[in-house]
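Contributing new records

If you add data, match the layout below exactly. Sequence lines come first and carry their own label; structure lines follow with theirs. Keep one chain per record. Anything else will be rejected by the validation script.
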Amino acid sequence: MIFELDCAGRPLNLRRAQVMGILNVTPDSFSDGGHLYRASRLSIEQAVTHAVGMVADGATMIDVGGESTRPGAAPVSVEEELDRVIPVVERLARELDVIISVDTSAPEVIREAAAAGAGLINDVRSLGRPGALEAATATGLPVCLMHMQGSPATMQRAPQYEDVVAEVKDFFEQQLDRCVEAGMAKDKLILDPGFGFGKTLNHNLELLRRLEEFHAFDLPLLIGTSRKTMIGQALGRDVHERLCGSLATVALAVERGGHIIRVHDVAATVDVVRMTEAVLYGEEQAGR
């Protein structure tokens, strides 16, 4: 596996787990209630301030999203997503020495975000929208492909699998072939099993338990379990009471070889990641 990705001139070190901070600029995020969203310049300042705080806490990547993909979420127009995302990306690229990821499925947003300074495309629909594959290929940026059964509006309506790990792996094989055929370099791709996207609690637990099987692709793995329903179901906790459960999944993901950990609670997650690595690899990892 490659150990470094070029994200628009900023290197992504894959020799150790990296923490990606979530920056939602939507009015209906499941986890933060849209507290950063306002249709004004103030929202940009709030978003930048939040990003600065996450970087200070140890995030090496910031994932900017302008469309909620929570269960049952409705899509937003391309124009609205552009208005939410691009000004924030421009400010972050100008003011922070950090890799900026954009959580989008729209080809127009992919192109504009790349021009604004984004270094990674993170698409929950795996470049499935018309024109998205071509747009992402043209940017030359690394892309994260995520598995989802159904769509955000339908994905939690009784998802079923014979073998969730095998079926997610089959999906990745198809998507990798598709991307390579379009001219994208395989070593620019990242895989996300899609915790909570068209999976029951047992499906999610099995994905985490068998995470090492995805190393067969020899590609980086992005893990996003932060505050998700799987934790609420397992522990009986409300969305704002899921930190401990989230951190447990982080430790397990790092132990099983996860490379990018996407979270809301950066400071606590960084501690868990570094402590887990210290146990796995020796004291020289602690605090580095």
